[in-house]
Amino acid sequence: MRDTAGPVVLCEGSSITGPVTLAAHETSFAQTVVLGDDPRRHRLVEDLRGLFTDGREAFRSRENITGGQLHAQVLAPKAAWELTTWHVGRLTGPAVGDSGDTTREEELIAPHNSKPLRRRDQAGFPAHWVMEIQLVDEHRGFGGTLKQLLDLV
């Protein structure tokens, strides 16, 4: 396989992101990196990591945690940041989002998802989740993203 994309150029506040498909299972990863010494931007990256770690620990420690419960756990400590999406993660797997159907709330880590996250997907396999946390400082005009597998790392 030959890489023809060229070099990756990162600018201040850039995100590294992209869908990844492995054996017909689609997921994505993203992590904001900060170039420079702006303490507020560095704090954003630290807070993203902290929210992800806290969310993962809540997921690991509660066998029957629902999407709504994990969503509330992630939202609780967000402090000075605005959450940019109404959900904080999604189901990953075969053709997620490719069918043209609207994503159902039970496929998201979202407020009204009352289903346990540990369950079987439509194909009968264990469900796997990507936590997607996107925060923004609206007053200063920057934000960041952290997307990572919740249950396989």
Residues in helix, %: 10-25%
Distance between the termini: 27 Å
Low-confidence parts, pLDDT < 50 over ≥5 residues? 1-10, 95-100
Oligomer: single chain
Gyration radius, rounded: 16 Å
Number of helices: 2
Descriptive overview:
The protein has one domain. The chain is 21% helix and 27% strand. Strands 1, 2, 3, 4, 5 and 6 form a six-stranded antiparallel sheet that branches. The protein contains two helices and six strands; from the N terminus they run E-E-H-H-E-E-E-E. Mean pLDDT is 77; it is low at 1-10 and 95-100. Helix 1 runs antiparallel to helix 2. A hairpin with a 4-residue loop joins strand 5 and strand 6 (142-149). The longest helix has 23 residues, at 39-61. 26% of the residues are buried. The chain is an alpha+beta fold and 153 residues long.
Which features characterize this protein?
6-stranded antiparallel sheet, 2 helices, alpha+beta, disordered N terminus, 153 residues
Write the layout of secondary structure elements.
Layout lengths: L14 E8 L2 E8 L6 H23 L5 H9 L6 E2 L5 E6 L33 E10 L4 E8 L4
Antiparallel strand pairs: 1-2, 2-4, 2-6, 3-5, 4-5, 5-6
Helix pairs in contact: 1-2
Question: What's this model, at a glance?
Answer:
It is built from two helices and six strands, in the order E-E-H-H-E-E-E-E.
